[in-house]
Amino acid sequence: MSAARLLFAITALVFLALSRQTCNAKGKGNRHHCSPSSCGSIHNISYPFRLNSDPNHCGVPGYNLSCQNNLTVLKSKTGGKYYVQAINYNNYTIRLVDAGVEKGNCSSLPRNSMSYYNFTAGDIAPYRLSSWTYDRSKNILFLNCPKPVKAPLYLNASPCLNGSYPCNSLFPESKTGYPYVKVGRTRASDVMNSCRIVLMVMTSLLGKDGNIFNSTTYLDIHQELAYGFELSWSHVYCGSCGWPFKYINDCIIGEENHVDCGVNSLIRGVVLAAGIVEFMGIIVGLHLVVCLCAIPCVIISLLHKCRKRHLSLYGTIEDFLQSHNNLMPVRYSYSDLKNMTNGFSHKLGEGGYGSVYKGKLRSGHNAAIKMLSKSQADGQDFINEVATIGMIHHVNVVRLIGFCVDGSKRALVYDFMPNGSLDRSIFSAEQCTALTWKNTYEIALGVARGIEYLHEGCNMQILHFDIKPHNILLDDNLVPKISDFGLAKLYALDKSIVPLTAARGTMGYMAPELFYKNIGGVSYKADVYSFGMLLLEMIGRRKNLNPLAEHSSQIYFPFYVHGQMVKGENVNEVGDATEEENTMIKKMTIVALWCIQLKPSDRPSMKKVLEMLQGSLESLQVPPKPLLYPEEELVPKIEDQANETESSSSTLS
């Protein structure tokens, strides 16, 4: 092929890529001179739609509708049946309702699943969920749970659906299950344990009047189901711009129902069709030569980049260690660790960070060796931990004995804690260490002292961001040690609000300001919140959230505890505490409730926490009921606290 032909072909492609074409969206329908059809309340059935009784040329294949019992029916490729509620020729949408949904009968349910997957699988083709229709729709999830669920995002559907269960194949466990619906986007973690997803459907976000639907009860949801959802069919007109344009996924709808079809969206089609035909000879020849020369170069380049990345990683850590060579911890080799752990034979535990092994130092003292996983590619968690713990010397912070940086191997060597982590002592059914209330109180004081030291006792402010029972270790005298500083951040002491680009921590212990920016900035008060949640779990010997609790008031433990304190009743459910121990429990409870207040400004500092724990019970006031969300109306209403009228100024006698 000559250079002139090559230049001509390139010029033609560039021209196509830069040009755009506008086509009349109504033109094709007008050419066929078909009168609109009607069925029931739908009076404007015209191109591209047609009834089965209309001539074939009046519509486009795939857009056939039928008229059954005076209702306009659309059937999907998978056999799903939908009733057409409206066809809009201005914004190119069609509104559908599942045939199983009856208006005014809240026990009726959709028969077909309708979610984003249906569009990716082509079940509803040629209709599509365009960006416009996607923004105007929302997801509805039908669930069946074996037990009642108390969660703000779960709407109870029992009043409507219990009676229809025996007749509905979607809920075979009708006599034992509890039906719920959840509105909006749902992650796997949002589905409560043992609940089963029955159906996923879509509804319109806006009603007929253009206002957003108010989805506060299942009756509201059913009205939305009866209103229907919208799908797009605008892309059908791209074919009227010429044969290449029918492969474009989206058309831009302009004024007067014109569809703007851009050739720049067609580059892939041109290259695969006309471009390949025009360039076949040259492309094959050039690619053959280029591939023979380039493949070895690419392989060498990839190997070089891979090696450079690893060297950069190790260089980052080595640079850090060189600049902090005055740190007390000892540097070990990987072979040293193998000898210390007897070939890593005694594993103590495992987590997302890696594995922990028991070892013995040359001095004869036991140690815990944490081998970091390779997933921590940038070594930042390693640097955080060495930099943070390496300069800390406090009785309530775990001591870093040494570390290892040997090729790709990275490890941290700590003092061995024979009583393990606190969660083993408070959550396990066969508690490894029987904690008395005196022990619990002393552990709470120790953890508070450790956090207070991190916040104010060093030349830098250290925020831990992951205070939880698993990260509190107990030595042989049950002295608590704060561990795992992989998420820790160091800031200047005068920084009251710290910059943070992403939430960090463990769900259930993370402060609300990490999610809701409007309630206050992120500060040391985030650790105070985590300490409060930790303290409540120490008091209750249970997780703060327990969906399987016998009483609804105990599902979220902080609510139950607050209710008990306001009523002047014991928080200790076992009832085996002495008067002195009950005083300790009440003090810890009040302090914990202050620590988990929604707004950071309402929480005390750790210094104040220590004063409250060590002060008299009479000087402490019960704080307001803790909130889960900034919007008070989103907090679940707990049955046992429905008549609560006490104010936040209540005191204990």
UniProtKB/TrEMBL annotation:
InterPro entries: Kinase-like_dom_sf, LRK10/LRL21-25-like, Prot_kinase_dom, Protein_kinase_ATP_BS, Ser/Thr_kinase_AS, WAK_GUB. ATP binds at K370. It comes from Corchorus capsularis. It is found in: Membrane. The keyword DNA-binding does not apply. GO terms for molecular function: ATP binding; polysaccharide binding; protein serine/threonine kinase activity. Residues 631-653 are annotated as: Disordered. It is a single-pass type I membrane protein. The chain crosses the membrane at residues 270-303. Pfam families: GUB_WAK_bind, Pkinase. The keyword Endoplasmic reticulum does not apply. Residues 1-19 form the signal peptide. Keywords: ATP-binding, Glycoprotein, Kinase, Membrane, Nucleotide-binding, Serine/threonine-protein kinase, Signal, Transferase, Transmembrane, Transmembrane helix. Residues 644-653 have a biased composition (Polar residues). One of its GO terms (cellular component) is membrane. Residues 342-617 form the Protein kinase domain. Its main location: membrane. Gene3D superfamilies: Phosphorylase Kinase, domain 1, Transferase(Phosphotransferase) domain 1. This is Protein kinase domain-containing protein.
